[in-house]
Amino acid sequence: MGSFSGYMQYIQGELGKSWCKGAEKDADATVCGLSSSGEPQGIHDYGNRWIGILGKDAVMLKNIAQAAKIICNSVDTWAANLQVDEGAGRWGQSRCKSEELGIQGRTAPKSSCDWRAKQALWYLNQGLTELRPDKPEQRSLMVCMDIVSIILGIFGNARKGKDEYEYKQKNLCQAVYEAFSEWGGEEVATSLMDFWFPANTGGIILGRKSMPQETGHGGTWRNALYIRPRGITSIQCSLRQPGPPRTYSTSCYWTKDSSGCENYNDEQWTAAEEWKLASKVVSENELSELIQRHEDQSSRLPPSSSSSGWRLLVQAIGAEEYFIQVVAGTVGGLESDMSSNKKEFQRVLPRFMISGKNQPQRCKNTAPLLSHAWEGLNHKLAPDQKRKQRR
Questions:
Q1: Is 183 in contact with 150 (CB distance < 8 Å)?
Q2: Do both 220 and 368 map to the same domain?
């Protein structure tokens, strides 16, 4: 299993931090604004960082943050469902099919994905409307949302040039690379391009392992990055100069429904023209409908991930990273233990608290954190207990 959320932590915590130590950076438009002391961001706030991530010149849909959050969650689950090809020392295919990713992806009830896979953390933040960078698992999600918003913004603002689609007079692969570089530095940009749009036949790179691209060069994310009809959803990039800085050219373009990567001269679709003709309000309304449909579908996930008891515990401690590590198996507990039966929660939680005292340094705060959760849970359950006593 791969950890995409762990990769995002690496992007922000190791590569990003070293870059942020240099000259003063714009916190609103770079990874530097996503430190543990960064500002909370409302998903539905019109002035949130994701709407302004590319600056004032880019036209961004007002619900871009909601779309980016869903896309990131699906990629996190995709990575958590990767199988390791032990013989080759690389990733095999993911149990998640490409059509299950993104805002049109299937999350329930017949998805081939395990949406509660051990390495998939972000689905716990599904209902949050404000994200806080002081919470590690929310911070890594915000990092991903920055990255996805950059990609979606460039694709959505693409214009037809003389020989290719362009963004700010750059071919789209070069534009995405330079935007990544402005957001997090050269090392970050190189790493992100090798994951999203690898310019080699070795495939996507995640956690020092590569995997072949399922649908052809550059096409892995053509479903995941879909937010409007017939728009560009992925690109095939070729590396002209290894750099640093790198120089890219764009070979062809993917859409969600294309049978392959299409050349600039293809007459079947023109994303730039559609963007000009379709009003921004219409695009936002269409995206809102897709988001609502996805959220309605997500609400039908199996009880073990959406039970009232599970939500109660998550709310009690704010979905902290340490708690998630414990529940996911750090001390041997399983999510199946967390049934919706409140009495069962009272039985299971003390076991985690006791085990947490003997955890390694990274989980040192588990015991007091769970103690806080225990108090919060007891407080929330008190009315039920009193009703039972009166009976």
A1: yes
A2: no
Amino acid at 205: I
Using the 3D structure, point to which of 245, 264, 298 is the last residue of a domain.
Answer: 298
pLDDT of res. 93: 72
Euclidean distance between CA atoms 269 and 272, whole angstroms: 9
User: What's the total number of domains in the chain?
Assistant: 2
The rounded distance, in Å, linking the Cα atoms of 36 and 9 is 12
In angstroms, rounded to a whole number, what is the distance separating the alpha carbons of residues 385 and 57? 57
319-349 pLDDT tens trace: 443 343 334 333 333 333 333 344 444 444 4
Counting Cβ atoms within 10 Å, is residue 73 exposed (0-12), middle (13-18) or buried (19+)? Answer: buried
Is the CB of residue 236 less than 8 Å from the CB of residue 261?
yes
Start-to-end C-alpha separation, the chain = 49
By the 10 Å C-beta count (0-12 exposed, 13-18 middle, 19+ buried), 162 is classed as exposed
The number of angstroms, rounded, from the C-alpha of 51 to the middle of its chain's C-alpha atoms is 16
Q: What is the mean pLDDT of residues 225-234?
A: 82
Which has the closest alpha carbon to 319: 251, 263, 373? 373
Contact 100, 107 (CB under 8 A): yes
Q: Tokens for 188?
A: 């970050």
Q: Report the amino acid identity of residue 361.
A: Q
Q: What is the pTM of this model?
A: 0.74
* Residue 336 and residue 281 share a domain: no
Q: What are phi and psi of 51, to 5 degrees?
A: -70, -35
Is residue 163 exposed (0-12), middle (13-18) or buried (19+ Cβ within 10 Å)? exposed
Cα separation, 181 vs 29, in Å, equals 11
Q: What is the distance between the alpha carbons of residues 267 and 371, in angstroms, rounded to a whole number?
A: 62
Domain span including residue 366: 303-390
C-alpha triplet 53, 54, 59: angle, nearest 5° = 105
Residue 50 to residues 191, 223, 237, 274, 356: CA-CA distances in angstroms? Answer: 21, 21, 25, 23, 37
Cα–Cα dist 305/124, whole Å: 8
Pairing of strands 204-206, 170-171: unpaired
- The three-state secondary structure class of 328 is helix
Closest CA to 82 of 224, 216, 205, 193: 205
Positive or negative torsion for Cα 207, 210, 211, 215? positive
- In this structure, are 294 and 358 located in the same domain? no
Q: With both helix axes pointing from N to C terminus, report the angle between 342-356 and 308-317 in degrees, rounded to the nearest 10.
A: 40
